[in-house]
Amino acid sequence: xxxxxLLQSFAERVSxxxxxxxxxxxPVVVGDRTVIPVAQVGYAFGGGGGGKAESPNGGGGGGGKxxxxxxxxxxxxxxxxxxxxFVDRPRMGAALALGFLLGAAVVALTGTRRIEVVxxxx
Length: 122
Prior knowledge:
Elements: H1 3-17, H2 20-23, E1 28-30, E2 33-50, E3 59-77, E4 80-85, H3 89-110
Antiparallel strand pairs: 1-2, 2-3, 3-4
């Protein structure tokens, strides 16, 4: 098996393991409303090889990473379709700003006090 076939086989096996369906499952239909799960799925692969010119069998290696994380959902109704984001960005930004302000207030209130050390004459 050459490297092209090996990578193709590996990619096919990995692509079936990380999908929206494996993160969430199938779309859900309730009445006239359909909720379709949405996920971010990513792949990263790398490999290399080498060896000495006089050696018929060189060395090599490779690896990969697959990730899938929930992102949101599509809600389909007779009135229209909307995306429901699982991350509330304005709320997260407000929480971050509040944390920064509280931290700055604590530093300002406690202050940095310098203590002088006076050496006694010998």
